[in-house]
Amino acid sequence: MPDLSHYDYDLPRELIAQQPLKARQDARLLVVNRQAESIEHAYVRDLPEYLAAGDTLVLNDTRVIPARLVGRRERTNARWTGLFLSADENGNWQVLSKTRGKLEAGEAISIVSWDVSQELRLRLLTKLDGGVWAVRPEPMGDALPLLEKVGRVPLPPYIRDGEMTEADRQTYQTVFAKEPGAVAAPTAGLHFTDELLSKLSKQGIPREFVTLHVGIGTFRPISTPTIDEHVMHHEWCSLSRETVDRLIATHTRKGRIVAVGTTVVRTLETAAHRGSLAPYTGTTNLFIRPPYNFHAVDALLTNFHLPKSTLLILVRTFGGDDLIRRAYDTAIREGYRFFSYGDAMLIV
User: Fold this and answer.
1) Can you say how many angstroms the Cα of residue 211 is from the centroid of all Cα atoms in its chain?
2) CA pair distance 2, 203, nearest whole angstrom
3) pTM for this model (two decimals)
4) SS3 breakdown of the chain: % helix, strand, coil, rounded to 5?
5) With a cut of 70, which residues of the chain have pLDDT below it?
6) pLDDT for residue 136
7) Alpha-carbon distance 241 to 205, whole Å?
8) Where in the chain are the domains?
9) Architecture of domain 68-152
10) Before 145, cis peptide (omega within 30)?
11) Are 258 and 299 in contact (CB under 8 A)?
12) Are 231 and 237 in contact (CB under 8 A)?
């Protein structure tokens, strides 16, 4: 097993996309053919040329919630930022917290919405592991409506230091987002428009949906000395019986299952952990790394991922280590845009 430095690479800062393209489907597409060991350049709008009738696209229909919180500590007036993670049956929240100085139980945080039109108070209850606090919103209420009032788009820190604009409410959400629960977007899906999905469907390439709520681990780098020691975060995912039946039918007709994003790969491979696809609803902490035999996914559309990340390791495991390293070198040399709002790669 290679060590973590094997998955490092140098990326010029100007290649980190800070804004999405006006037309989502106009993102560049690096097409990597594993059998031919070839690399070619295209655009996401060209996807119908690289897929065939009988293939099935699988997309993640999770919806990003406005999970980022910004406010002030009432006791010290120091700036405080947080990320909503979950709510329990009593209405208390788990929040990843960041501020200067030491927080104490009983403190109150005043949360202010992005447009400064809404406020909410959070009362600190208990300090948990990893910078997470249990907090109680005041007044109490269902988490989602409260977050819709005061929460902000949870952009990753490499996009404008995490500071949203009004446009991000729409652009950091897929056009097919349905099930609320993610604290980060399934970014490969951001490239699709209704028009492109319709064009693929008319070509005989249907779409199916799974749900995986992207969690806090997406922001956390590998910190263990070796890759094998890294423990993946748990994320909730779901694959229905009806979808399984249609995906099995795809393979029966010799079509390919095309995963849109690493979240879809992890959902399908979790559901196929016994060797074949089966319905699954629950949590997954599947860490795909060498050596790994894929059971459900035949092709992958994905964005370009951070150095030393579990996502990059997954992609290199799927596409072939040397070939994907060469693909990244090519993308950097050709000025592709990287990360969440960046360009895409299709591995067939």
Assistant:
1) 11
2) 41
3) 0.96
4) 30, 30, 40
5) 219
6) 98
7) 20
8) 4-64+169-347, 68-152
9) Beta Barrel (2.40)
10) no
11) yes
12) no
